[in-house]
C-alpha cells in the first residue's frame, strides 16, 4: 500500500492499530502518556481537529502546519518514544504498531465533519460506551469551556455552532444505536 504524502496545510486522518490486533493501551496511564507525548512532539507542527484512543487502535484528525519531512520525523519520534516506554512498562520487545501509520487526506469539509463524528463515536461503535462520557476522545474538549489544544472554534464553526455539533453527534449516535438494535 502506497502511503499518502503529507502536505503542509493538508487535513489528514491518521490512524493505526496494534500489530496483530494487540493492545496498544493497557490502562488509562498509557493513554495519558500517549497524549502527553503527542503534544510534546507534534504540537505546533500540526493542529488537532479530533482524536480517539481505543485499547487497540487510535484515530487522529490533524492539519499540517509544517513541511512533510518535519511532521513525518516528529511522528516517528513520537511513536518511538511511546513504544519504548510502553514496552519497558510491560516488559515486552518489538514492534507495537502495524508497519506505518495510516493516513488519508481529507478532500473537503463534509468529509472532515463526517470523520469527526465517526472518530468521536468510536467508543459507542466498538465498546457500546456512551461517547459523551468517554475520557480519551476529543469530544469533551469541544463541549466544555476548559482550555484545550484542540481547534475548538474552527470545528464548532464548521458545524454551525456548539448546539449543532452536539445535535449531529446525537443524531449519528441514534442511527448507530438503531442499526445495532436491528442486527
From TrEMBL:
Source taxon at top rank: Bacteria
State the Gene3D superfamilies in the record: Transposase IS200-like
Query: A GO molecular function for this record?
Result: DNA binding
> Which residues are listed as membrane-spanning?
none
Q: What InterPro entries does the database record attribute to this sequence?
A: Transposase_17 (IPR002686), Transposase_17_sf (IPR036515)
Annotated Transposase IS200-like domain residues: 7-122
Tell me one GO biological process term.
Answer: DNA transposition
| PANTHER family cross-referenced by the UniProt entry | TRANSPOSASE IS200-LIKE DOMAIN-CONTAINING PROTEIN, TRANSPOSASE, Y1_TNP DOMAIN-CONTAINING
The protein's name in its UniProt record: Transposase IS200-like domain-containing protein
Species whose genome carries this gene: Flavobacterium restrictum
Amino acid at each position: 500500500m502506497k502511503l499518502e504524502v503529507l502536505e503542509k496545510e493538508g487535513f489528514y486522518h491518521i490512524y493505526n492499530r496494534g500489530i496483530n490486533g494487540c493492545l496498544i493501551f493497557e490502562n488509562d496511564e498509557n493513554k495519558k502518556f500517549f497524549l502527553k507525548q503527542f503534544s510534546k512532539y507534534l504540537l505546533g507542527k500540526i493542529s488537532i481537529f479530533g482524536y480517539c484512543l481505543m485499547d487497540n487502535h487510535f484515530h487522529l484528525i490533524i492539519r499540517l502546519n509544517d513541511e512533510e519531512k518535519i511532521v513525518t520525523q516528529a511522528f516517528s519520534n513520537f511513536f518511538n518514544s511511546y513504544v519504548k516506554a510502553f514496552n519497558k512498562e510491560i516488559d515486552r520487545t518489538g514492534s507495537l504498531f502495524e508497519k506505518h501509520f495510516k493516513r488519508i487526506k481529507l478532500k473537503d469539509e463534509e468529509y472532515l465533519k463526517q470523520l469527526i463524528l465517526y472518530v468521536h463515536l468510536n467508543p459507542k461503535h466498538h465498546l457500546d460506551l456512551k461517547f459523551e462520557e468517554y475520557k480519551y476522545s476529543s469530544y469533551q474538549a469541544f463541549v466544555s469551556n476548559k482550555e484545550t489544544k484542540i481547534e475548538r472554534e474552527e470545528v464548532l464553526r464548521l458545524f454551525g455552532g456548539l448546539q449543532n455539533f452536539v445535535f449531529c453527534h446525537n443524531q449519528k449516535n441514534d442511527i448507530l444505536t438503531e442499526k445495532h438494535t436491528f442486527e
